[in-house]
Amino acid sequence: MKSEIGDAVPAGSYQILGVTGPTILVIPKYQIVAVKMYNKRYNYGGANYLHFLKEYSNRVADACT
Fold it and tell me: What is d(CA 47, CA 28) in angstroms, rounded to the nearest whole number?
């Protein structure tokens, strides 16, 4: 199964993606909501979009520990 959530993110977390680039990551374990904003359609990194989304969520989770 392909997931945009990184391996460092605790179970029970979720991420919401928008068409103009916003990413909202919710990590209940750390009581964190992280928001990344863009204002451009389809700028997720092309074929590597899963890599960049996982990298973002891993960085947020690492910053919480």
Answer: 29
**Based on the number of CB atoms within 10 Å of its own CB, is 17 exposed (0-12), middle (13-18) or buried (19 or more)?**
middle
Q: Which residues of the chain have pLDDT under 70?
A: 1-2, 39-45
SS3 call for 7? coil
Tokens 């389809």 correspond to 42
Intra-chain end-to-end CA distance of the chain, in Å = 26
pTM (predicted TM-score): 0.81
Alpha helices in the chain (DSSP H): 49-64
C-alpha neighbours within 13 Å on the C-beta side of residue 41: 0
